[in-house]
Design a protein that fits this description.
8 strands, 7 helices, disordered N terminus, alpha+beta, three-stranded antiparallel β-sheet, 297 residues
Length: 297
């Protein structure tokens, strides 16, 4: 099953932390002004006790590793992101967002170690790393991925020594392999096959909440050489809002998506905790869209 959402997402990932170090020393006192005394033989000079210079804290290797938006007027929700230390990243938001942890858990936002990216020439998919119960054994593109159990896994060990994921673009072919016993389970059976699976006592149909969302974004500031952004209608926020209001998303879902699909109201699926908290996306309103376009000129 799939969900549908047309959404304009502008995200800038950034964070701020102010580190203050407070140091102290012995209090200083003012020496009294000298008074005139009768001339006498000067006493032998005495040596002042040696004192150590106050220690200064070495700058952190992560100090200054931060990018920050000048303000929150750019249209996104992230104000800044900072590498606090080796294992900590801090995000500062422009607005509260209870679904933020779910958003940054998206696979497209996966964090890769800089050393690994440099070592693999920027191709982490060819040399994946991770901390899971399985390790990659082989990958035949377009055919299958083979995993073997990772015995040094920190958590509960995997049940099977080998795990194989195979691809098949045809849902009927996937169902045939399941019925013949050449695979143990399949994902995303075709909607037309639901009744067949339900009627087979050897099979079990397990419905689940859809986590797929279809997104459409706007390029509101193209950087092509010689491009005059002043003539670009998408640079006007009202034009983008009008387009969002003018798309009949429900009709698209009804005509082109399988049973169980719905029009999404938020950036994340409602099946995710706090995924549908907060202001909803624009509703379909042709008259309001026309009014915005007229106001935008």
């Amino acid at each position: 099953m799939k969900r549908n959402l047309f959404v304009l997402l502008s995200m800038l990932l950034i964070a701020t932390v102010v580190l203050a170090a407070c140091g102290g020393g012995a209090p200083t006192t003012e020496e009294p002004a000298p008074t005139e005394e009768p001339a006498t033989e000067a006493p032998a000079p005495t040596e002042a006790p040696a004192t150590e210079a106050p220690a200064t804290e070495a700058p952190s290797a992560y100090e200054g590793m931060m990018v920050e938006a000048p303000d929150c007027e750019y249209g996104g929700e992230i104000k800044s992101i900072e590498a606090v230390d080796e294992f900590t990243v801090k995000f500062t938001l422009c607005v509260p967002d209870p679904a933020f942890p779910s958003k940054i858990a998206f696979s497209s936002f996966a964090i890769q170690p800089a050393e690994h990216l440099e070592a693999t020439g920027g191709a982490p998919l060819e040399n994946p790393i991770g901390t899971g119960p399985y390790r990659l054994e082989s990958w035949e593109r377009g055919n299958q991925v083979v995993f073997t159990r990772f015995d040094d896994y920190w958590g509960e060990p995997a049940l099977n020594q080998t795990l194989v994921f195979r691809w098949s673009t045809e849902s009927a072919q996937r169902l045939l392999e399941l019925q013949s016993g050449t695979v143990d389970a399949i994902d995303n059976p075709g909607p037309d096959d639901f009744a067949t699976i339900d009627a087979d006592e050897n099979l079990q149909l397990i419905p689940r909440e859809a986590l797929s969302i279809f997104y459409i974004g706007f390029n509101n500031n193209p950087q092509a050489e010689g491009f005059d952004n002043s003539t670009n209608p998408l640079a006007n926020e009202q034009v983008r809002q009008a387009i969002a209001m003018g798309i009949d998303r429900a009709r698209i879902v009804d005509n082109f998506y399988p049973p169980g699909s719905s029009v999404a109201s938020h950036f994340t699926p409602c099946a995710i905790p706090n995924g549908c908290v907060g202001e909803e996306w624009y509703g379909f309103d042709v008259e309001a869209a026309r009014a915005l376009l007229a106001e935008a000129g």
